[in-house]
Amino acid sequence: MNTINNADNILELPLPPLLAVPLPTNRPRLEIEIGDVVCAGQTIAVSDAGADVLSPVTGIVGVPVIRRLASPIHETALCLPLTTENVRKLPPAVVVLSPDIQVTLKKAGVVGLGGGAFPAWRKYRPQIKQLIINAVESDTHICCDRALLAVHRQTLAVTVARIAYALSVPAAIIALRHDAPDISPVEGVNICRIPTGYALGNERLLVRHLLDTVIPSHETLADHGIMCFNIGTALAIDDALTNSKPMLGRVLTVRRPDGDVINLRVPFGVSIRDVATFANVRTAMAHIGGRDARAAMPADAVIHAKTNIINFCQTAQDTPLPCIRCGDCLPVCPENLSPLHLYADWRDGDFARMEKRQLDACLLCRRCDDVCPSNISLTNAFATAQHHVAVAREKNVQTKQWQTRYERHQQRLDVPRQFAGVNAAARAAQAMNRVAKAKRATATTHK
User: Fold this and answer.
1) What is the chain's alpha carbon radius of gyration, rounded to the nearest angstrom?
2) Residues 207-220: pLDDT tens digits?
3) Is residue 334 assigned to a domain?
4) 269 in Cβ contact with 56 (< 8 Å)
5) In whole angstroms, what is the distance from residue 202 CA to residue 114 CA?
6) Domain range spanning residue 335?
7) pTM to 2 decimal places
């Protein structure tokens, strides 16, 4: 493999004999049963908050298992095994279009491919006035978006115009790196180039740069009439709305130990071992991350929407040193946070204090990583902390819901108890009245 020749190409991963499709963490409801034969694109699980989970291939459903997910954050998920060998091929399912755009995107399983896997249907609002397509991939180790841009540069602007029309959005912008390949322009779609070093195309920073609009951490872009999608997500949205095709996989970057780079289109649920076999890598131990490849993954880790790179490096990059509290990270934070103190709280495991220091406002832009003389992966620490806090919040919400249901249940049980004595007395009085009436009737008969 040649790094230059393959960096802008997209290859197809041959279908492996077994996949493990991750299920939603928020109370998923299975639409199939163990032993069923499902076709590609068929709905296998749904949840209220996320996108529907679709089968990426034709296969036989197995017993759910817990697997590690291939992402920088230590995540596990319940996965549904699909066996593809010796299975009669079925016609792929199509997305049933609905007048409600949110319903269509949810049933198509479209989620963000920029690293967050946020459901696309939850970003859409009828009052959206601005659509931004984020093709700013400033991590030079990750080139899957650049490959998509190279493949679709003649039609991307037309695609974006078509999406804007379908979503009834009056204005659209495509944001590119300054050195990205030229794309064919289309009337109504503005093409903007972002300077080198821009913070990984973070959508809040992107909006600030393009529209001079500040989005507070507790608000969403939709609150300000803005919708932002990664280039891969935008292409999936167009496939769903135009071609009735669901999202069944993604394109990711694969870096071999010898430095060669390929971009690979894979179905969701394949393992790192499958990718290693295709890339002719002997060891299936991989690291997730571009510039900072320290998150080691086992061979059976499952690829999902958040996986944008698999780095088959033999060892992690430079070993981090202890924090020397130099303060170099303070002036570079675009949100005026204190990475130095946040990292100290992270080492102490004090997530509550990190929340007080506005952990949610961290953009995970890696600017603090770039200037740290100790080579500390501050961003990975903050991303893990944000995930921990989000999971804790979700558990608290569920706990409060269960507590409310329990209290209401107890109230329903207490009502009969309060009136139990009254009801018994009333029944006794009625019985005495019946006896008295019977006695009077008997006495009258004898007379």
Assistant:
1) 28
2) 888 888 888 877 88
3) yes
4) yes
5) 9
6) 318-447
7) 0.78
